[in-house]
């Protein structure tokens, strides 16, 4: 069947049999255009570093930063956590020692605060040092994507370290229990 002659400003429709054939030829070529992961896969995370002033969490492998995440902290982000309810994120050397897949926030990994030094300082001040500091995702009750994004641009926790849920999935997969964490001012 011959194609009708071309008219200026008119594009003829392709016969129905040609379209699937063309798609079969073009689709394999488009596969190579898919987005590729730009960061190398991590075999094991040796440690985690949190830089509070920069609002950044880093996953370290072989002494190199392999992943970085923007974080939210407690409502009083400056200074070391001293007592229950001060809404500060602790500073110092800790261990990520256990995890909770069913926490009130999207997954959570526990930071071993308070350590012996934190307990001694709190005892000297006559206060409870607090605890239950976690790395976690957004609140589970938060279902609106628009409202969830508002959480990304401000400090909102009671002293925990928060990331997006997608980031928490990646951290959950890459960081094993027993991994050291250093939280810097």
Automatic annotation (TrEMBL):
Q: Name one GO biological process term.
A: cell wall organization
State which pathway it belongs to: Cell wall biogenesis; peptidoglycan biosynthesis
Q: Which Gene3D superfamilies match?
A: L,D-transpeptidase catalytic domain-like
Please state every residue range assigned to the domain named L,D-TPase catalytic. Answer: 46-184
The active site of this protein is located at 136 (proton donor/acceptor), 160 (nucleophile)
**Record CDD domains:** YkuD_like
Keyword check for DNA-binding: no
Q: Name one Pfam family in it.
A: YkuD
Q: Which SUPFAM superfamilies match?
A: L,D-transpeptidase catalytic domain-like (SSF141523)
Recite the UniProt keywords alphabetically. Cell shape, Cell wall biogenesis/degradation, Peptidoglycan synthesis, Transferase
Cross-referenced PANTHER family: L,D-TRANSPEPTIDASE YAFK-RELATED, LD-TRANSPEPTIDASE
The entry's protein name is L,D-transpeptidase family protein
